[in-house]
Design brief:
This protein has about 425 residues and is α/β, with parallel strands linked by helices. It is built from eleven helices and 20 strands. The chain has a domain of about 190 residues: FAD/NAD(P)-binding domain (3-Layer(bba) Sandwich), CATH 3.50.50.60. The chain is about 30% helix and about 25% strand. The strands form four sheets. Strands 2, 3, 9, 10, 11, 12, 19 and 20 form an eight-stranded mixed beta sheet that branches. An eight-stranded mixed beta sheet has the order 6-7-5-14-15-16-13-18, sandwiched between helices. This is FAD-dependent oxidoreductase.
């Protein structure tokens, strides 16, 4: 199996830029042998490696990543560690699935929290919660529906109206929100680097070492630019890059989202919005609205725009266009802060499946995968990777049943039909939710 497309982004990840120095990991060179090879050092791959190393301390595990640790999709997101499913439903079957999904997300949150506390990972971990916001009154129905779903799950929440919302967020831009208290906010690049740094000693990490071809025969063989790795078993956590591989049967595709991080606010700028704690906002329509954060170090994050990205590549011109767009959006939300400078704009990839189900489990006799995250990857993929390790080792874990209850990703049409369908859907959602921009 040849890897046709590798993730490439010409922009600087703002989360990485503001944390300064990082640990350096070598490139894979020459011939390497291992008991297990894991491709993809994101949340799923790292969680799988950690659990595997704990359960099999005498086995050699190789964790391979195409780029810098913490600088691919795992470190380029908005830094929300989500604890609740976005879509809950009302039927018995939907509620049972939502309850399973909630158990998985909260398992992922709890594991990450334990790792951050145990190792003292400095990632600005904040139990700030999340505001799910509507800009226009026409989307009150979506807010009300979410409230009913949270009631069905028995979850705590607050409905926050316009004036109180303005006091908490420092802007009158939003009309109404549902606040849920248990979402975590953090710097995802710092978290990812910390998780990899504290992996057990029987895990060898290689960075900047993309897998160029994969031979998944009786014994695994993977080529890299400077060598090869042979292993008894393979776990793939490569998400969007997996579409072209036969084992994944075209069941996922990649989209790119774009984010901008501002410079920290100075004393004069802070006076205009008042003293407030850090917060995070998600839009009622994730494809059309803007995700926003106010961080502990007094920066704003703006994430907006979703592009179909079959080639996994984002160029500097495209990123620059979105930087200007984000500056205009920020000026609409905070007109009193038009003098705040934009520091970094970048993109990150999300793998998407047609029915929202993951690609998870055993793909061949000695091949396993956790892909198709559909967003919310920090908690979701942490759970998926750690539980998959137990599944692969034959360990008893009740959450294996919860993972399997999510189903499997279904068939996607070939290109160019896929391109037409995805781009048409994105255009429709942007039009429907144009008042949220």
């Amino acid at each position: 199996m040849k890897i046709k497309h590798l993730p490439f982004d010409q922009s600087v990840n703002g989360w990485s830029a503001i944390i300064g120095d990082r640990l350096d990991y070598p490139q894979q060179q020459g011939k390497t042998t291992a008991d297990w090879l894991i491709i993809g050092a994101g949340y799923a791959g790292t969680a799988f490696a950690q659990r595997l190393a704990e359960q099999r301390p005498d086995e050699h595990i190789v964790l391979l990543d195409a780029g810098e640790i913490g600088d691919n999709a795992s470190g380029r997101n908005s830094g929300f560690v989500i604890d609740l499913p976005h879509n809950i439903g009302t039927s018995t079957a939907e509620l049972e699935k939502a309850a399973a999904y909630r158990r998985l997300l909260q398992f992922g949150v709890a594991h990450l929290q334990e790792q951050v506390a145990r190792h003292g990972i400095n990632c600005d971990w904040s139990s700030a919660g999340k505001y799910h916001c509507a800009v226009s009154p026409k989307f009150n129905g979506l807010i009300d529906a979410y409230v009913r779903e949270l009631n069905n799950l028995g979850e705590a929440y607050q409905v926050v109206e316009k004036d109180e919302l303005a006091r908490r967020l420092g802007t009158h831009f939003y009309h109404r929100a549902v606040y849920t208290p248990n979402c975590i906010l953090l710097n995802p690049a710092a978290l990812m680097q910390g998780l990899v740094a504290y992996l057990p000693s029987n895990v060898t990490v290689y960075a900047n070492s993309p897998a160029l071809s994969i031979d998944a025969g009786a014994r695994i063989r993977v080529e890299t630019p400077h060598g090869e790795i042979r292993a008894r078993r393979l776990m793939m956590a490569i998400n969007g890059a997996a579409r072209g591989l036969p084992l994944f049967k075209g069941r996922l595709f990649a989209i790119a989202t774009f984010a901008t991080l501002t410079e920290p606010l100075n004393a004069q700028q802070l006076q205009r919005i008042g003293d407030m704690a850090d917060w995070g906002v998600t839009p009622v329509n994730a494809l059309a609205g803007a995700t926003l954060r106010y961080t502990r170090d007094r920066r704003f994050l703006i994430r907006e725009q979703v592009n179909f990205t079959p080639g996994l590549t984002t160029g500097a011109l495209e990123t620059g266009r979105h930087a200007r767009r984000h500056a205009a959006i920020f000026a609409r939300i905070f007109p009193q802060l038009k003098d705040v400078a934009m520091a970094h704009t970048w993109s990150g990839l999300i793998s998407v499946t047609r029915n929202g189900a993951p690609i998870w489990g055993q793909l061949a006799d000695n091949v396993y995968a956790a892909a198709g995250c559909n967003g919310s990857g920090l908690s979701k993929q942490t759970a998926a990777g750690r539980i998959l390790a137990d599944f692969a080792l034959g360990e008893d874990n009740p959450l294996i049943g919860d993972m399997q209850s999510l189903g499997q990703a279904n068939y996607l049409p070939p290109r160019p039909l896929l391109d037409i369908g995805v781009q048409g859907y994105l255009a429709r959602e942007r039009w429907r939710a144009r008042s949220e921009r």
